[in-house]
Design goal:
- This protein has 313 residues and is an alpha+beta fold.
- Helix content is 19%, strand content 35%.
- It has helices at residues 17-27, 88-100, 168-178, 231-243, 296-299, 302-308, and strands spanning 7-14, 31-38, 41-50, 59-64, 77-85, 109-111, 114-120, 126-131, 157-165, 182-186, 190-194, 203-208, 221-228, 252-253, 257-263, 269-277.
- It has an eight-stranded mixed β-sheet.
- It is globular.
Length: 313
Amino acid sequence: MYTIPGHHHVSMITKNAQINSQFYREVLGLRRVKKTVNQDDPSMYHLFYGDLTGSPGTELSFFEMPMVGRTVRGTNAITGIGLLVPSLESLNYWKNRLEAFDVKHWDITTYAGREALPFEDPEGLRLVLINSEGQKVPDFWAAWEGSAVSQKHRILGMGTVEMTVRNIDTMARTLKDIFGYIEVSRSEAEAVYQSVSGEVIGEIVVKQKEGPREKPGRGSIHHLAIRVKNDEELAHWDNEIKARGLNSSGVIDRYYFKSLYFREPNGILFEIATDGPGFAVDSNMEELGSKLDLPPFLEDRRAEIEKMLTPLD
């Protein structure tokens, strides 16, 4: 029986790749591990940030859309991303760091049962630093020594992802009945699910809220990708999704991983992505994220694509 070992990546929308890159590298201390383009629309950047290699479960990715408007918040959307840090001491370190960089943030509080520090990026994306309390994280997550952040307090990877929907029950059926997520807690207005019992690296908080659907814009979350190990598992889940009457994109080769996409009944977009081959397939370790990388099927369009993009440091 196949299981989901955790999150793979989460993808957002940014209006300005330069500002985005400065914030996630210089303030949050993440490594930009891939500078590439949206394979479905190569006129826009697709940037990935994470640990040393952009390991599955550490990746935050952004599509640059210079003409995008503001996000009008609502329901039936992915509404928050948790980032794990080692300790309560780390949360205090980050509170001081965010204040020093004039980043909008709130006081240390409790989120999904853990000590946490909510904040927003420059475009209003909702993020929360979560005390991992020393919980074991995947062995392959590797620290980037070039980070501007103290290694003692660095962001480890992704934790709880928040979704807000009109109907928790339909989301529950997708997570539990198809993918085997465990329902950790449930109230009338909120439920918590984990792909691996007791582990925050695959945790999803689902909040129920009536009202209009969120209108996506800068700082909105496009989709959550969940992990599978290989092509065989991806094919299995493709069959399961179709068997439950949901529409699947079918398997797509993204070069850095293979994946498929589907929407659950509330309209939330999920991706299922393989662990490999990874971002080092076309770059050496030292150059990751420093130059424009294109998958082979776009390489013959490099000159055309580079003309469409604003140069990015």
